[in-house]
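Methods — Computational structure assignment.
A single polypeptide chain was analysed. Its primary sequence is given first, followed by the predicted tertiary structure written as structure tokens.
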Amino acid sequence: MLTTWLIAAAIFAMLLIERVVVTTLTRSPRGREWVRRTPLLHPNGISLLRLPMGLVGVWMAHVGWWEAGTLFFAFWMISDITDGTIARNCDLETEKGKWLDPLSDKFMYFPALLYCAVAANVRVPLPWGWVAAFLLLDALGQASRLVIQKQAANYFGKAKTAFVTIVLTCTALDQVQPLWFMSEHFVYAMTVSSTLLAFLSVYCRVIPDAWYANSLTLANFLCGIAAIWNVYKGHAPRAFVLVFLGQFFDLFDGRMARLYGSTRFGPIFDDIADGTSFGLAIGYLILAQLQPGMPMLVAVVAGGGYLICVIYRLYRFLRPATAMAPGIFQGMPSPAGAMLAGSSVLLFGARAPWLAVGLVLASSLLMISSLRYRHFARRIWPALPRTGKLLVCILFLIFVDVALSHINYVLFFNLFCFALGLVYAVYGLDPDTYLPGRRQRAQAAATQVIAPPNP
């Protein structure tokens, strides 16, 4: 494992050095001028240099130089971050670069994906069917740039590129020395996730902007339907992972609606999706997990009561009785309630059923309470840096893939979700309402009157 860890450390060191050097250079006026005078450091110059490097990396792997090939591939994929930073900070963005940069990405990872899917010397090959689907979708996305005005990459495209890079790097490191998490199920889940991100990237490029929010709402709804089916089939842990995945889509649908608009019935569709994923699916999960160790009546009351509280919570969101400041919820949001209640019954339903019932009751009451909670997507998420947001999304999807593919880590996944639910139940409370100093400053700002100018 020492060799693998050394290579991984070298990759992280390259990324760290690149970030420090490029950021420092492009924030200095002299540095920006020097970059502008050096054509090879222009974003389009870097993209052109990358075009043949994917084939070179595959050749290295084919002759058995997996260590060198992994570092070579990682270096040139990190350069994809470099050209974006230079383009933004040095005013070198061009229309040509908006399609050349993603094209150079494809020249980098298309050969590697094909090789890792069909080569006989790969220990855990990528599923060739899903690789073929990914290549087709990604090629379609690149071709669409020739006829569609939305030239710049969207967040799904950036996440797709980062995800594919992680898949290929892990596959290469596994060739150097087998990695404990590189099972066929995990590689399959990661490849499917990459393909779904490629589909979403193309989909968001070709649809009208007003459909973004409803499309993500539909994805959340489908996660809820799939979760209900998995509870029915006896796969409760997998069902909870699907609800967790639905939260990923729910995080962005409201944000897309605020940025790009939505359809007339968008808020109603959102409530239906939330009621399915965070209400009906989790209510059914509560019933299924409590019923073996508890009287049927208690299980029905716990699951049904939770569902009623979610429905009331969603209704109150559309028809608020009390005016709330922007980005503030009345009561704990239903995704947080679903995370806390669902993880509680999975962790304690068999071992301490009455504790699970108590936690479900607490989650239900928090959702219909008058406590004021910060909206995660409007108050907490925007405070994260742009790179941090992308990193969180990638780690989120990897976490889901690990939970779906490695049954041994389901307990860890449930504990993690339970901890997140507890943290948000406390940390999510609006500090301007419940911290005396913050409350006084907020009230003073709200009531401050600016004196009119002297005539």
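Note: The radius of gyration is 25 Å.
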